[in-house]
Amino acid sequence: MIRLATLNSFLTGGSMNFRVLAARFALMAVCALMTSVPAQAKSAYLQCVPYARQVSGVKIHGNAWTWWGQAAGRYERGNTPRIGAVMSFKKTAKNPFGHVAMVSEIVSDREVLLSHANWSRRGGIERNVRAVDVSAAGDWSEVRVWFAPLGGLGTSSYPVNGFIYADGAEDDAFEAPQMAKADKVLVAALELDLSDLKLETAVN
Known about the structure:
It is a single chain. The protein has 204 residues and is an alpha+beta fold. It has helices at 2-36, 48-56, 67-71; strands spanning 76-78, 86-89, 99-108, 111-117, 124-133, 142-147, 152-153, 158-165, 178-182, 185-188. Strands 2-3-4-5-6-8 form a six-stranded antiparallel β-barrel. A hairpin with a 2-residue loop joins strand 3 (99-108) and strand 4. The longest helix is centred in the first third of the chain and has 35 residues, at 2-36.
């Protein structure tokens, strides 16, 4: 009887211990995964890079701020907007990963419409929203961009490297699963190729 009681206690206690150990192991695995994944890829929300690559046809990988340098020798670059070109934003303290957006329409010498992702809202797709050149020299080195929560141009100005030129794809060619819609922002989620992104260790 003593042996049976001891065995029963071991089995029930062992089952509980196994569940506790399994839960702890799962928690440790999740923590390890989160610390090893680049900050820009820790969620399943759509980022600007895969969207810009899809709609523009500019086949560059890596964080947005690296696109300008990577484009050298591979794509024509310049300071004049063209339809289908990618506007390359510099990285700053407020925008440490930079940003990329496709020019979808030329409005004037100082205004274009952009199609881009992950700007006004996390994971949001915005099509044909305003971007205005506010640089002193009129060379598109600094812009303000439509910001949905304000219903107009944002109050911040962002430094721009210039434009990367390539034959643009149709904006509708990108078929992201749409979860919700608010004004001009479409919120989407998809599984990202994490190898597309690089870990950031410093910002401007």
